[in-house]
């Protein structure tokens, strides 16, 4: 039976067999792509971006900008997926509508690209629609303004599967494989936890609270609801947690028994965050629908940045379009530590507000930088130890991204050589 993803569309992997790939790729004009485009090729090819079959043409882009839908007028879509080229590149490679080219990453063949159209679009208009601002200090706008002169729309086919490098291999689980895992576990409902962080106990309780919400009225004789941690792996900025620490510590919560195999799974998705707040919350819902999830947790300021969005804007937008999405939200207030209660609790539960100690990112980072193990009510000791181990093993002595890490780290994925 077909697996249906976002928009009720069938999930199809756009991947050629090795023999077909060599035949189809032979003699094609080769065009190199940067890391962002390579990640998006992977997502299109494996069905993470269902129903997209390639990079958006002008009709789809215009519909996303004007109505937050694809050109079919029915399918919700909140962030454009675009392939940009400069006029000089188009001329250099002789790119024309109707042509098929070969996209390469770091010198190796990756995907065929059937060019349907080449067009221009107002970048400020994209920004105002997606990010609610056209200020270039917004990171999503900055990324948009860096796009080149023209956009190229067309379908892609993967000709060379990515090699997922250690320690990430177990965590790259494409949609069709993910759905099989859920069935094997017997999970009837699965709630997504979106993350780019090492987990403190506030995150842990965000997941546990969402698990309880998603469980709802189901029978409890055996575990039939799971939490999927879906870590976003993409562009890194100095000061971010290193990717290895993020993915390994999230899984450590299961390995150390704070969750278990019966209710917890860690995975990754390649995506360069746009920090689009409510629009990115909708995008995450679409993505996790394709992974086969039934629920998605949203805390305060989901995917926000600075002061561009109010704390619960993502919740409000989700509710407006919920009828067009096949995933249910679990909304949450902040989880925090209350010394009076002597436990981690929630803003909606505890009335000792003057005593609340919130899990601020600055506080948590200072704890990690000090290297002194904090109370287990803030950090699980196994998680903290693994952060420190990851710093030495992968981060050149730091759990946070440094210039040295950016220069010397092992890439998350690579494209192997292939003769064409």
Quaternary state, please?
single chain
Structure class = alpha/beta
Distance between the termini: 35 Å
Helix and strand succession?
HEHEHEHEEHHEEHEHEHEHEHEEEEHHHE
**CATH superfamily heading of the largest domain:** HUPs
Q: Number of DSSP helices?
A: 14
CATH domain topology of the largest domain: Rossmann fold
Computed CA radius of gyration, to the nearest angstrom:
22 Å
Largest sheet: 6 strands, mixed
Based on the coordinates given, report the CATH architecture of the largest domain: 3-Layer(aba) Sandwich
> Count of DSSP E strands?
16
**Low-pLDDT regions:** none
Overall pLDDT score: 96
Provide the β-strand percentage band: 15-25%
Report the principal-axis shape.
globular
What is the CATH C level class of the largest domain, in words? Alpha Beta
How much helix is in the residues? Answer: 25-40%
Estimate nothing, just give the exact number of structural domains. 2
Please, could you describe this protein's structure?
It contains 14 helices and 16 strands. By secondary structure, it is of the alpha/beta class. The chain folds into two domains: 6-161, Roll (Sulfate adenylyltransferase), CATH 3.10.400; 169-412, Rossmann fold. The strands form four sheets. Strands 1, 2, 3, 4, 5 and 6 form a six-stranded mixed sheet that branches. The protein has a five-stranded parallel sheet with strand order 10-9-8-11-12, sandwiched between helices. β13 (335-338) and β14 form a beta hairpin. The protein is globular and about 70 Å long. It starts with 17 loop residues before the first helix and ends in a 6-residue tail after the last strand. The mean pLDDT is 96.
């Amino acid at each position: 039976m077909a697996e249906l993803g976002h928009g009720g569309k069938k999930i199809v992997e756009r991947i050629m067999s090795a023999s077909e790939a060599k035949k189809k790729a032979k003699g094609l004009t080769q065009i190199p792509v940067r890391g962002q485009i390579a990640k998006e090729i992977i997502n299109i090819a494996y069905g993470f971006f269902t129903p997209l079959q390639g990079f958006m043409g002008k009709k789809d882009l215009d519909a996303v900008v004007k109505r937050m839908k694809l050109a079919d007028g029915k399918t919700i879509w909140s962030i454009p997926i675009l392939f940009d080229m400069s006029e000089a590149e188009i001329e250099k490679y002789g790119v024309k509508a109707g042509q098929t080219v070969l996209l390469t990453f770091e010198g190796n063949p990756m995907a065929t690209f059937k060019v349907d159209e080449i067009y221009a679009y107002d970048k400020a208009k994209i920004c105002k629609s997606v990010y609610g601002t056209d200020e270039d200090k917004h990171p999503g706008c900055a990324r948009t303004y860096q796009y080149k002169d023209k956009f190229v729309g067309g379908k892609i086919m993967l000709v060379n599967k990515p090699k997922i490098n250690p320690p990430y291999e177990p965590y790259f689980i494409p949609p069709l494989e993910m759905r099989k895992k859920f069935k094997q576990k017997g999970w009837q409902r699965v709630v997504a936890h979106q993350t780019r962080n090492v987990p403190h106990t506030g995150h842990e309780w965000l997941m546990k609270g969402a698990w309880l919400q998603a469980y709802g009225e189901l029978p409890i004789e055996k575990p039939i609801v799971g939490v999927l941690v879906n870590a976003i792996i993409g562009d890194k900025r100095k000061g971010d947690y290193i990717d290895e620490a993020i993915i390994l510590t999230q899984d450590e919560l299961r390995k150390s028994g704070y969750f278990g195999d019966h209710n917890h799974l860690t995975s990754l998705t390649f995506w360069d965050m746009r920090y689009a707040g409510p629009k990115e919350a909708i995008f995450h819902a679409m993505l996790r629908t394709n992974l086969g999830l039934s629920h998605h947790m949203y805390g305060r300021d989901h995917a926000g940045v600075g002061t561009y969005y109010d704390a619960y804007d993502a919740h409000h937008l989700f509710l407006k379009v919920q009828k067009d999405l096949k995933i249910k939200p679990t909304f949450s207030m902040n989880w925090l530590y209350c010394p009076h209660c002597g436990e981690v609790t929630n803003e909606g539960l505890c009335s000792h507000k003057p005593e609340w100690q919130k899990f601020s990112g600055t506080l948590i980072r200072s704890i990690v930088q000090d290297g002194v193990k904090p109370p287990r009510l803030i950090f699980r000791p196994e998680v903290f130890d693994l952060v420190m181990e990851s710093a030495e093993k992968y981060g050149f002595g730091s759990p946070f991204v440094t210039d040295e890490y950016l220069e010397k780290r092992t890439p998350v994925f690579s494209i192997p050589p292939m003769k064409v």
